[in-house]
C-alpha cells in the first residue's frame, strides 16, 4: 500500500501546463499513458498567472498604504523640533520571490476530487494559505513490456494491463497550487520543518492512508519518472554508441583502403622514378660508350691508313729495311689492342641495352 506523502516546491511557469495537460509539456514525456488521460480530474478557481499578478498588486499596495505609511516622527535633538518622516515609496515584490507553491500529493485509486479538497481545506485553515488549482493524475506511471519483471519500488502501485500484454505501474498523485501570501501583511508564509511534518500528518489522516516513517528520508514522489528518464537515457546512449561504432568501423575501413591505396601509389611512384632514373643513367652511359666507340673507330681507321702507307713504302723499298718492318709490327700490335678495346665496348653497350 502506498503511504501518505506530500512534497512542496515552488511553482514553475509551466506547472499549470503540466497539471492540465496543456501544450507539449506532457506529450513529450515517456511516463505518460495517453489512454488514461481521460481518467484525470481537474478544477481551478483562478489561473496561475492571474493569481500571481494579484499577489504582486496586493504586495505593492500594502507596502504603500499600510500603517507604516508614515514612519514615526523623530525629534531633532538640537532644535527640539518634531520633523515628519519621509513618505514610504511604493515597493515591488522581488523577482526571486516564490508566492505560489505546488503541493504534490500521493493518492490511491479510491480518492477523488472531494477527498483532495478536504485535505486542502485542512491545510488552508492551519497555515492561512489559499488553494486555487487542483489536478488528480491517473495517467502517469512506468510502462513494462510483455514478460518484463516488475521492479520492487513499483509493487505497491496500481497495475494496469493492456491488450498487447504490456502493463503499467501507475503513480497516482495530485497537484495543488497554493497562494501562500498573508493578505494582511503581504508577506509570504515561511514553512518550518515541523510544518512539513504536520502536513504529512494531515494527509495521512484526511486521506485515510498510512503515514511514512517520521524523520526518514522520504523517497521522491516522482522516482518512476527518474526511472523512465534513466531508461530512455540508457537507450539513447546505447544508440549513440552503436552509431559511433558504425562510424568508427566505416572510418577504419576507409583509412585501411586509403592507406593501402596511398602505399601502392607511393610504391608505383617510387618505382616509376627509379626506372626513369635508371633509364636516364643507362642512356647517358650508352651515349658515352657510343662516343668512345666512335673515337676508337676513328683511331682504328687512322692506324689502318698508316699501315697501308707503311706497306706501300715497304714495297717500294728494295732492301726492306728492318727499321720499317719493326715499325709496321708495332703498328699492327697497336691495332690489335684497339680492336680488343672496341670489342669490349660493344659487349658493354649490348648488355646495357638488354638490361633496359
Here the CATH topology of the largest domain equals BirA Bifunctional Protein, domain 2
Low-confidence stretches: 67-89
Distance between the termini: 97 Å
Spatial ordering of strands, largest sheet: 1-5-10-6-2
**How many distinct beta strands?**
10
Approximate helicity band:
40-55%
Q: How much strand content do the residues show?
A: 5-15%
Order of helices and strands: EHEHEEEHEEEEEHHH
Structural class: alpha+beta
- Gross CATH architecture of the largest domain: 2-Layer Sandwich
* Number of helical segments with 4 or more residues: 6
- Average pLDDT metric: 77
Largest sheet: 5 strands, antiparallel
What value does the Rg take, in angstroms? Answer: 54 Å
Q: What spatial form do the alpha-carbon principal axes imply?
A: rod-shaped
What is the domain total for the residues? 2
Question: Can you tell me the CATH class of the largest domain?
Answer: Alpha Beta
Keywords:
356 residues; alpha+beta; BirA Bifunctional Protein, domain 2; 2 domains; five-stranded antiparallel beta sheet; 6 helices; 51% helix; rod-shaped
Amino acid at each position: 500500500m502506498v503511504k501518505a506523502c506530500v512534497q512542496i516546491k515552488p511553482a514553475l511557469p509551466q506547472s499549470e501546463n503540466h497539471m492540465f495537460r496543456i501544450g507539449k509539456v506532457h506529450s513529450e514525456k515517456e511516463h505518460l499513458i495517453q489512454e488514461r488521460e481521460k481518467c484525470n480530474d481537474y478544477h481551478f478557481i483562478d489561473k496561475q498567472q492571474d493569481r500571481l499578478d494579484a499577489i504582486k498588486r496586493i504586495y505593492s499596495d500594502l507596502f504603500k498604504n499600510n500603517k507604516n505609511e508614515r514612519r514615526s516622527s523623530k525629534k531633532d535633538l538640537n532644535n527640539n523640533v518634531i520633523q515628519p518622516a519621509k513618505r514610504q515609496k511604493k515597493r515591488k515584490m522581488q523577482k526571486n520571490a516564490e508566492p505560489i507553491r505546488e503541493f504534490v500529493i500521493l493518492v490511491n485509486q479510491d480518492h477523488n476530487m472531494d477527498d483532495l479538497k478536504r485535505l486542502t481545506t485542512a491545510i488552508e485553515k492551519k497555515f492561512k494559505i489559499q488553494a486555487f488549482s487542483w489536478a488528480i493524475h491517473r495517467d502517469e506511471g512506468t510502462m513494462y513490456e510483455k514478460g518484463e519483471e516488475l521492479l520492487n519500488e513499483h509493487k505497491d502501485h496500481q497495475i494496469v494491463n493492456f491488450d498487447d500484454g504490456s502493463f503499467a505501474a501507475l503513480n497516482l498523485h495530485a497537484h495543488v497550487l497554493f497562494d501562500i501570501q498573508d493578505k494582511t501583511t503581504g508577506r509570504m508564509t515561511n514553512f518550518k520543518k515541523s510544518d512539513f511534518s504536520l502536513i504529512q500528518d494531515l494527509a495521512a489522516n484526511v486521506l485515510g492512508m498510512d503515514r511514512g516513517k517520521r524523520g526518514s528520508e522520504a523517497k521522491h514522489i516522482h522516482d518512476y519518472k527518474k526511472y523512465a528518464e534513466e531508461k530512455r537515457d540508457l537507450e539513447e546512449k546505447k544508440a549513440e554508441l552503436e552509431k559511433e561504432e558504425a562510424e568508427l568501423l566505416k572510418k577504419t575501413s576507409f583509412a585501411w583502403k586509403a592507406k593501402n591505396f596511398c602505399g601502392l601509389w607511393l610504391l608505383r611512384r617510387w618505382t616509376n622514378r627509379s626506372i626513369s632514373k635508371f633509364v636516364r643513367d643507362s642512356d647517358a652511359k650508352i651515349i658515352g660508350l657510343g662516343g668512345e666507340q666512335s673515337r676508337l673507330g676513328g683511331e682504328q681507321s687512322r692506324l689502318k691508313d698508316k699501315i697501308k702507307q707503311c706497306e706501300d713504302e715497304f714495297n717500294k723499298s728494295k732492301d726492306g729495311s728492318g727499321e720499317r718492318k719493326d715499325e709496321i709490327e708495332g703498328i699492327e700490335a697497336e691495332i690489335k689492342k684497339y680492336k680488343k678495346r672496341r670489342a669490349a665496348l660493344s659487349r658493354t653497350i649490348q648488355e646495357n641495352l638488354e638490361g633496359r
